């Protein structure tokens, strides 16, 4: 662990609230991902949890308002407050990543690409990954496009199974400890495994909340929340120092 003072470490900005339980889970995973022996070893973190951001899936399927301007405004607020890097712990919100990035001068990490790269490291030669995600993420083809960049196929649930997955996600938003949601998602993992998936992506940040403590899953499930937390901690620790601190003070002025 670096001997840098806490106030010399890069500040992480979290553009969250989509939903609140997923944001809380993300921060817990930032803490877990940090190699720390004391409070002062952890990166400074700004969390903007804005549950009023319009529903991302609703926008992508044409049934709700566009969330891009509000996402961009949240990113600008984090930058003005001193964030040196921004993480967005919502897979579906990554459909609007270009708008978020255009609004700020600091890096905004890509949860989808980080997760894709982790999965490809895990897959056996010729193996296929499966995806559990919202209707919006499926409609926007976020993961399909990311895997296609590497020439890799991706399995998604059937129409009926996808409806059950989406209902489970809604249940988690209302009750993070929903046993029914956990059961549905475990079944969806098993279904993808039967269809040939060697690894399944938890491509919605509510899914790891629901599956916390789940045992006996048919195949490994990659937690996109955890992948993003590890990526943003690596970024913060590798970009910390006096020069970074001076930049942070400039952004805060």
From TrEMBL:
Keywords: Isomerase
Transmembrane segments: none
Organism: Leucobacter muris
UniProt key word Isomerase: yes
GO MF, one example: isomerase activity
EC number per UniProt: 5.1.1.-
Phylogenetic classification of the source organism: Bacteria, Bacillati, Actinomycetota, Actinomycetes, Micrococcales
InterPro entries for this protein: Asp/Glu/hydantoin_racemase, Asp/Glu_race, Asp/Glu_racemase_AS_1, Asp_race
Protein name: Amino acid racemase
PROSITE patterns registered for this protein in UniProt: ASP_GLU_RACEMASE_1
The organism's place on the tree of life at top rank: Bacteria
Family: Belongs to the aspartate/glutamate racemases family.
Spans annotated as Disordered: 35-68
């Amino acid at each position: 662990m670096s001997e840098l003072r806490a106030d010399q470490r890069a500040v992480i900005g979290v553009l969250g609230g989509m939903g609140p339980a997923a944001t809380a889970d993300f921060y817990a995973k930032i803490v877990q991902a940090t190699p720390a022996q004391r409070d002062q070893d952890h990166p400074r973190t700004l969390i903007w949890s804005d549950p009023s951001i319009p529903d991302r899936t609703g926008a992508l399927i044409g049934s709700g308002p566009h969330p891009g301007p509000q996402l961009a405004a949240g990113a600008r607020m984090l930058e003005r407050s001193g964030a040196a890097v921004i993480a967005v712990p919502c897979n579906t919100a990554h459909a609007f990543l270009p708008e978020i990035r255009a609004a700020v001068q600091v890096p905004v990490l890509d949860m989808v690409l980080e997760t894709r790269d982790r999965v490809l490291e895990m897959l056996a030669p010729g193996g296929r990954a499966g995806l559990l995600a919202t209707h919006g993420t499926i409609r926007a083809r976020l993961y399909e496009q990311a895997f296609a960049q590497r020439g890799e196929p991706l399995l998604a649930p059937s129409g009926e199974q996808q409806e059950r997955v989406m209902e489970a996600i809604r249940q988690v938003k209302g009750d993070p400890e929903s046993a029914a949601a956990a059961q549905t998602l475990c079944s969806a993992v098993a279904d993808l495994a039967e269809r040939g998936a060697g690894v399944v992506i938890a491509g919605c940040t509510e899914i790891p909340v629901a599956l916390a403590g789940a045992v006996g899953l048919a195949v490994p499930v990659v937690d996109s929340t955890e992948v993003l937390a590890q990526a943003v901690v690596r970024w913060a620790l590798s970009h910390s120092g006096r020069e970074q601190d001076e930049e942070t003070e400039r952004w805060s002025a």
